[in-house]
Amino acid sequence: MVNSDVMPLPGSRRFLLVNPEFPIPYKSRNHKDYLPVGLLKISRWLEHEGCEVKLVYGNLPLDELCFRPDEVWITSLFTYWSDYVVRSAEHYRRLFSRARIVVGGIYATLKPEDCKRRTHCDAIQRGVHSIAEQFYPDYDKLNGEIDFQVVHASRGCIRRCKFCYTHIIEPEYVPKRCILSEIVDTGGRKLSCASPDDVDLTRVSITRKGLVFYDNNLLANEHIEELLAELIQLRKKRLISWCESQSGFDGRLLEKKPDLAEMLKKAGFRVPRIAWDWGFSYKKHIEKQIEILEAAGYKRKEIFVFMIYNWDIPFLEMEDKRIACFEWGVQISDCRYRPIDQLYDNYDPHRWGQIGTDYYIHYESGWDDYLVKQFRKNVREQNICVRHGYPIYVKAFERKKPPRELVRRVKDAPTLREKIQILESAGIREYWVPSTRRLPRDYHHLAKASQAVVLDF
Length: 457
Ligand code: B12
Ligand code: SF4
Known about the structure:
The protein is built from 16 helices and 15 strands. It has three domains: 14-124, Cobalamin-binding domain (Rossmann fold); 144-388; 393-456, no CATH class. The protein is globular. By secondary structure, it is of the alpha/beta class. Cobalamin binds at residues 6, 33-34, 37-39, 41-42, 73-75, 77-80, 102-106, 110, 125, 128-129, 132-133, 164-166, 169-170, 214, 216, 246-247, 335-336, 338, 340.
């Protein structure tokens, strides 16, 4: 797929950039997971071209906007958040019937026909915008200061996992050679440098010192050793403070080059994540990868294992994988599978007994709503135990003020059996030992009922 960049129409000078009203809690608005980084680059590029740009979150009324655009450029994220994009397009079409509407980002790239049909937009940008990419994101357009920035040290991925769409969004693996060029706020086009040696570091200042990598597969970069050496150097000079990779590290590459783990640690990478998206039989590899990270200085409880569920691996096998993580003392980042053609997601964590028309359920390998929610619950409660080093989860202890004396006695009791005895004699029966498989209560009865509903619609 060769994508061409959408360009402003001749004569357009005023651009409204819209980040739709995605279901993100207000406190997470300027969160490292949800910055509209694509729009921030576009903003810098268009201003560089002499245009007037306004960035907004959601669908604002005319009197709040105080801006009449020639073009409205809307970003999109996950396909199952498509409704929010459609609503923004409808809203701004109503306000500015003559403005040109352009939609870009992940949903627009993965489902362009659907996007065109439902948003009635005038143009779609598929994939990366190669001109905007040359500009440093305009973080000043966000409300409030942030102490981190989003970085891509590569695009694409060398692998093709069955459940992943990266090969459609970024079909080619394109590695970068230098980080410095990505992270210095130039106020315009990115710095051009092939290596940090090209730059006098004593004259460089970096405003946002935390680096959040959005790479799909950071370690696959053929220049990874050079990049990590550069990050280590920048950190020594206190030009950066910490790094984090949103995607997991490719454990197979870590096994091949274990020295990378030490470099990651020295470069300040925190909460390292690896993925276990395959069956239980892959256990030995995961154990090895954890050992490599631990030898590099990471504590086990700060390591996360990504696990896709509601997918081909059945619930009980997922439970065995979960238990293995508990025994290793590492946390789990559970990822519920949604297919590419899933354009909505009405998963409600508080309503048990939902069906496949509410959100995607992978019935074909035995999943149903009860199992999906039970797995989520098991992981959440297990992670609490891992973080605190508890061998047992006690619901009452999650309350703000658990009875201190009781918590101490349970903690100090040397064996699991004694801990349970103390809890039971205090009348507490809601506890769970994460090293055991846990099905939903009355599962067989519930599953039958839910199957009847599934067959009905
Ligand atoms: C980093 C990342 C995350 C981060 C941050 C997401 C984010 N804010 O973008 C976090 C950790 C939160 C995350 C979480 C999840 N993720 Co994720 N994530 C990614 C990843 C690796 C990169 C996304 C990215 O780069 N975003 C930044 C983009 C939008 O900015 P940009 O690229 O600089 O923007 C350029 C272009 O997009 C374009 N552009 C953008 N907007 C616009 C607008 C206009 C008008 C124009 C012209 C151009 C334009 O121009 C820009 C400049 O070049 C992608 C894979 C990928 N390669 O995309 C998966 C991906 C988006 N994630 C995916 C999934 C499934 C998830 C999870 C559901 C995993 C899970 N099961 O738990 C969760 C969802 C959590 C939730 N619902 O809240 C899927 C989405 C599939 C789908 N159906 O939509 C992807 C595609 C990976 C995959 N498995 O295939 N993810
Ligand atoms: S390694 Fe990650 S990014 Fe690459 S194809 Fe697999 S899931 Fe997608």
